[in-house]
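look at this record:
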Amino acid sequence: MNESNAVGRAIATRHVDSIMELLQAVQEDTARWGVGNANMRPWFRGQADAGEDPQASVFRRRYDEFRMSTMFRLRAPGFGARIETNRLDQWLFLMQQYGLPTRLLDWSESPLLACFFAAASWERSGQSDESYADPDHMAIWMIHPIELYHLSQVSDIPNTWVKGSVRDTFRMACLAAD
């Protein structure tokens, strides 16, 4: 079964019934990517409901993101947080770590970790099977990070959390696939 994404490309979907089938599917799919760079690894995201698109938690419900993040930033120093006030990326990472809804999505380089999070979020939700868009299936999303970068059509990497040689290495890794 294939679905279409925002840029009109087909999203390949596969059904697997075991961890071994998942790992085999990952190996087969990434082999088709034709990636010669051994350092490029796919990213994975596990979700409890295969019928839902990956969506940041702050957008799943109507949250007042500004109010919530302001309150968090005001109270965080009392818990030992030492972040520059203009470092939005670091604030979002910290908020995500503490379980607040943010605009960030968690991704992993491990399909097994993604599988764990899909199963754990299903177990933790306590929802009935009927409340899921696809009650019979969990989802493991897999993306090609360099292709995602190219599809974003960003001319410069808006990276604010690293400087110097690390940023240059990241830029070379993304641009090397051109």
